[in-house]
Amino acid sequence: MDLNFAPEDVAFREQVRTFIAENYPEHLRGKNRRAGLEKDDFLAWHRILHKQGWVAPSWPKEYGGTGWTVTQKYIWGEECATAEVLPVLPFGVNMLGPVIYTFASEDQKKHYLPRILSGEDWWCQGYSEPGSGSDLASLRTKAVRDGDHYIVNGSKTWTTLAQHADWIFCLVKTNTEVKAQEGISFLLMDIKTPGITVRPIITMDGSHEVNEVFLEDVKVPVENLVGEENKGWTYAKFLLGHERSGIAGVAGSKRQVEKLKTIAGSERSGTGTLMEDTDFARKVAELEVDLLALEFTELRTLASESAGKGPGPEASLLKVKGTEVQQRLTDMTLEAVGYYGFPFVNGPNVEGSNIFPVGPDYATQAGPTYFNHRKASIYGGSNEIQRNIMAKMVLGL
Amino acid sequence: MDFSFTEEQTLLRNTVQRFVQDNYELEARQKIVNSEEGFSRDYWQQLAELGLFMAPFSEELGGMGGSQIETMIIMEEFGRGLVVEPYVPTVVLAGGLLREAGSQAQKDELLPSIIGGETIFAVAYAEPQGRYNLADITTRAEKDGSDFRLNGHKAVVLGAPWANKLIISARTSGGQRDDSGITLFIVDKNTDGVSSRDYPTIDGSRASEIILENVKVSGDAVIGEVDDGLPLLSKIFDEGIAAICAEASGAMRVLNDTTIEYCKTRKQFGMPIGKFQVLQHRMVDMFMECEQSVSMTYMVNLKLDESDVEREKAASAAKVQIGKSGKFIGQNAVQLHGGMGMTDELNVGHYFKRLTMIDTQFGNVDHHLKRYAALDA
């Protein structure tokens, strides 16, 4: 047992840290919230990383991955979070990409993978439906074969950033006669296909992050089917299980703890600062303890991954504990700013706004961020569903 | 970055595991706990012969060249079996103090007899008024020529009834709660003026109130420097914390496994109670608490050699986690076992009691949260 990184990993960390410092776009620094960003803002860093060959560290090298070790990938994630770079959008690189290179045809690989890497295609995810959230397999969007096409009808919801998307990958029902899981297929659709309508959903923090997507008699060529018909559930589960690295968000939360402490060090409470208030300091300490435990649980997972054991359903633990910590951080940040949590003058879009903020700069986003982050325990399989998974897969109940 | 164990460490774990499995079934353990002495001298000797007492010492000190990781492995397995033999006071605390600051003569005399199982130590740091503050000491050690005279009352000295030697913290200068002015003394338990009231503890161990009346101690019996015992004691305390965190991890694993097994077999309303989601989620929360505790156990054991501040933060953070998780797992293990969980006959209550007292030992959650927050400011 040893906590030190190997010399080559230390050198790697230095290399990527320098790269980020020298190449991250100046105008995006500090803008680590999605709200208020333009499409090009999201893609700027993606394009720089693509040029460097670092856009998809989790992919096998033959498809454009970096060939980094598990530890290197971890270091990369840590450095990105510490520098507060806007993460590369996960939909193409981390979600669809692995499904394509694992299950799709050679032609599909050749067509889609380079476009994901370059950022030419912006993907969004068509999984949830108004009637199918946690019980995803009950989805009702139907695809009926008609010659060389499928005719798709239904609707998808919570589709993140679909307003910018070029393509959507969808789970659709191709057989309603069998058990729910056995009649699902995985279809790729050009979002400009006639019959697809994207409607914004505004969340309680005032931001436009998610959408509803309506599908009315959408004609999708059969060559857009991934893998085999009716095997989509397998690919869907693979996708859900794939993107696990960094799921705990430890480095990002560490950064937020520092920010919270800075805020609490500036805010007054009685004759001292809020950070000197023993009640508040105790809560910060409790949070830090939980975060430290999470960090070491993640490192243990990483170690077993390096030893060739894939991350098991234990990753659900990282999701639950990670999102709990993230939510508490936003909660305490809002608490820390006190009365200046009230003003909502810029809506969620503080960046680029020419309206002068009310109160300290650090307070303007505390409210929206807190309300926005309630999503964390709901998305990606709610934390209750994660507990179901652990009960079944880990505890054998 | 490496979380794997060496071959030797795995062998060590297997050895301890086998010893605990063969000798420490609940019934056997209760027989030891309820015996006149309350621990087994025979087992103590066997543990020495298995080499467990030399495991954490360097080769030049007569050990196996191990580290805190060896102690962690041993303690985790001891936690699984609720082993009561005084490994922590003798090997971890007294052994640690001697390793860290013992004079050559003290090392030469005492380490071999610790390693050989001949000498059992208890460390008397607590006092009735002091709560978890190691510096809150009213026991006085007055200079008397080249000797010292000790007077005072040391509280809840764990393992003292079994010990033939004590290490006592006493004030040689300064006010009651001053950091400086504390000195550590090695005292033979049969020295004139040392008296004790021995009693069982609720978690199956034994302890004593130690009263010191004009106890004459030679100047050679001081560990480290006169007046400068606190930093030393504090460091070894953190090693003790790391050790009982491992013990707690082992105990938590057993409690969780036992609870899951019980919920799979216990039927109510025509089905195993483990099929009820509200209980499943409770057990998942217990599982997560346990994993976080194991992580923190690794963390603290790997950080014991860092700077004082880093080490203290690590120890406090781990102790907070273990205290909270131990309470959560212990209470819920009883709850999920229902009425059976209340009985003395199942192992559940015994593990729960030990986990509860581990929270108190070396300072509880509140104490360590405060210490962490103060170090962090």
Give a brief outline of the structure:
By secondary structure, chain A is α+β, with helices and mostly antiparallel strands. Chain A is built from 11 helices and 10 strands. Chain A has a 4-stranded mixed sheet with strand order 1-4-5-8. A 4-stranded antiparallel sheet of chain A has the order 2-3-7-6, with no helix packed on it.
| Succession of helices and strands of chain A | HHHHHEEEEEEEEHHEEHHHH
Q: What is the CATH architecture descriptor of the largest domain in chain A?
A: Up-down Bundle
Average pLDDT value of chain B? 97
CATH third-level topology of the largest domain in chain B: Butyryl-CoA Dehydrogenase, subunit A, domain 3
User: Structural class, from secondary structure content of chain B?
Assistant: alpha+beta
CATH class of the largest domain in chain B: Mainly Alpha
Helix and strand run of chain B? HHHHHHEEEEEEEEHEEHHHH
Give the overall silhouette of chain A. globular
Q: What is the CA-CA span between the terminal residues of chain A?
A: 33 Å
Percent of sequence in beta strands of chain A = 5-15%
Strand order of the largest sheet of chain B: 1-4-5-8
Specify the structural class of chain A. Answer: alpha+beta
Examine the coordinates and then state which fold CATH places here, giving the name of the CATH topology of the largest domain in chain A: Butyryl-CoA Dehydrogenase, subunit A, domain 3
User: Residue share in helices of chain A?
Assistant: 40-55%
CATH superfamily of the largest domain in chain A: Butyryl-CoA Dehydrogenase, subunit A, domain 3
**Unreliable runs of chain B:** none
